[in-house]
Amino acid sequence: MATPIAARFEQLKLRIPQLFDLSGTLLYVGANHKRAHYLKELATVGYVITLLEIFLRNVEFYRGNPYLREIIHGDVRDLDVLGKRQWDAAFWWHGPEHVFPHQLGQALTNLEAHANLVVLGCPWGFFKQHAVFGNRNEEHVGAYYPAGFEVLGYKVATLGCVDVRSSNLLAWKERSVGD
């Protein structure tokens, strides 16, 4: 029987096959020493991966990781650290819930400016989590539902059952031709 993480990965591949057809460059946003979901799988399909991570201890933990080409210590809410660099895709899994709702739009605009395809994953609704690993950025401060991403132009699907304890929201947006 597949684990919930593996089952959600299969759903992710079905919903956004272009993520796995692209390869190229990928900006992976946020990873801690207990979780970097699908990092290996994304590297295996051929992505050259840059990790953007806000917490210095996590940056240090991932140095030398074979799936990462580069690690940037920075914040998705302020991407000046990236300059004018571009990636084929940005993958922010278990991340949007760590920014306040009033910050989400700017964070997504930032990602959209740096990637042709933006893929997000977060809990469906509120899922309580306090600061962990000594990292206040691990606290859940936002609760998101499909309409919140749809109004920003994202396609949305639910992975797992639609409830706050056992499902994820999946949201994705591709840059239009001519953008």
List keywords for this structure.
single chain; 179 residues; alpha/beta; Rossmann fold; seven-stranded mixed β-sheet; 6 helices; 7 strands
Description:
With 179 residues, the chain is α/β, with parallel strands linked by helices. It has one domain: 3-Layer(aba) Sandwich (Rossmann fold), CATH 3.40.50.150. It is built from 6 helices and 7 strands. Strands 3-2-1-4-5-7-6 form a 7-stranded mixed beta sheet. A hairpin with a 6-residue loop joins strand 6 and strand 7. The longest helix has 14 residues. The chain is globular, with a radius of gyration of 15 Å. The N and C termini lie far apart (43 Å).
Tell me which CATH architecture applies here: 3-Layer(aba) Sandwich
Rg value:
15 Å
**Basic shape:** globular
- Count the strands? 7
**Class in CATH?**
Alpha Beta
pLDDT averaged over residues = 87
- Tell me about the largest β-sheet: 7 strands, mixed
The residue fraction in helices comes out at 25-40%
The order of strands across the largest sheet is 3-2-1-4-5-7-6
